Amino acid sequence: MAKVLKTKDKILNAAERLFAEQGFEHTSLRQITGIADVNLASVNYHFGSKKALIQAVMERYHSAFMPELDIRLVELEAKGVTSTEQVLNCFIEPLLSLQRINPNGTSIYLSLLGHAYSEIQGHLRRFTMQNFGHVVQRFLACVQQANPHLTLSTLFWRLHFTLGATVFVQVSGQALSEIAEADFGEQASAQDMIAKLIPFLAAGIAAPV
Amino acid sequence: MAKVLKTKDKILNAAERLFAEQGFEHTSLRQITGIADVNLASVNYHFGSKKALIQAVMERYHSAFMPELDIRLVELEAKGVTSTEQVLNCFIEPLLSLQRINPNGTSIYLSLLGHAYSEIQGHLRRFTMQNFGHVVQRFLACVQQANPHLTLSTLFWRLHFTLGATVFVQVSGQALSEIAEADFGEQASAQDMIAKLIPFLAAGIAAPV
DNA sequence: GTCTATAGTATGATAGAC
DNA sequence: GTCTATCATACTATAGAC
């Protein structure tokens, strides 16, 4: 039975795809409603404004991802953290579970995160930190437990390098995947990408200063 | 003696700053000419179009950076590459020398690179590869010499993680620097940032698969 | 809830006087 | 080379009929 989507969901689906591909500012309501096949005015009817739509899109992913991640970090904390890779592995399942929202959910979410940081979307950073700041803190604590030789400042920067490497590859992902496919005959699924990333990131985070 | 800048240079200086801070699409000609204190029409008179202005801004940095990097890579190739860190060190001086163009030259250039990748600026990627593809190739060859245990495909991805970590931190740099300063009382100059990056990146690139 | 029509604003680009 | 004035186009948002 083919599910008939409500207007609100059609808008969300179209918006998350376009936001991930093009960024927030660079995606117009006309594009979104065009692809969603709904009327232009319906975005404002259902969400109030473009800014509110952006937050609704992020919210749907955040609220699926963050609690899942938190559960795994709490478990890990309880049994004791011994390696950086252990911490990063906590991300795998929560990230892959986003494919239940959308077949490209994983890479959409990471792209959205990238755009949220690099565009002038201060409100998004604040929004994230207010709602899920405690998960970020727990993550930081775990990494520090795995790397007692590193100062908090060094960790802070390395975790942002980590975020950067991850989201950049997603944001510029289409172009990169095309090159990779042409040069190495490789398909790069979200799962493959994560598998490639983790050894790189774990080694980088734990590197001697 | 205070140098009086020509209109063309005033435009370039204002444009590179705004492009680095906000991205290309998100910066208007009115902003640029407002800050440069020149007439709106002068951009089109001197450069022809906004697209041509973008390329002129990139060109000024590319042509200062790429040949410098190439010289160092050629030297290194000649005496034989033994470590990843050696290769990355080749970037330091060329990057820092960009501060002769502009006191913030290093971080402006890296930000521009980030925006060039993540915005839909296909023409910029092509432009770069056409003019400086051989430098990129030489860099890849050096890294491979330092890491004979890695396949070309693995290297390809890790070098993009590297680029991502680097440009992301620059693009979202202002926000991060503010947080870092608040939390650790640290100033993060371009030179400091590079010093923090290199151990992270070298360990990540050379990590076991 | 959904539509049309349009207000109000910002953009890149250009014609033409000086 | 530099200016004013303006065109054509795109955008978000909203009022009001159905």
CATH architecture of chain A: Orthogonal Bundle
N-to-C SSE string of chain A, H for helix and E for strand: HHHHHHHHHH
CATH fold field value of chain A: Tetracycline Repressor, domain 2
Q: Estimate the helix proportion of chain A, in percent.
A: over 70%
Number of domains of chain A: 1
Computed structural class of chain A: mainly alpha
Kindly report the average pLDDT value of chain A: 91
Could you give the distance between the termini of chain A?
57 Å
Overall geometry of chain A: globular
CATH class of chain A: Mainly Alpha
Profile the largest sheet of chain A. Answer: none
By DSSP (H or I, 4+ residues per run), the number of helices of chain A equals: 10
Count the E strands of chain A.
0
Task: Write structural notes for this entry.
The structure is a homodimer of 209-residue chains. By secondary structure, chain A is mainly alpha-helical. Chain A has a single domain, classed as Tetracycline Repressor, domain 2 (Orthogonal Bundle), CATH 1.10.357. Chain A has ten helices and no strands. Chain A has helices at residues 7-22, 29-36, 41-47, 50-79, 84-96, 105-118, 122-146, 152-171, 173-184, 190-206. The longest helix of chain A is centred in the first third of the chain and has 30 residues, at 50-79. Chain A is globular. The mean pLDDT of chain A is 91. Chains A and B meet through helix 6, helix 8, helix 9 and helix 10 of A and helix 7, helix 9, helix 10 and helix 11 of B. Chain A binds a DNA duplex (18 and 18 nucleotides) through residues 7, 28-30, 38-46, 49-50.
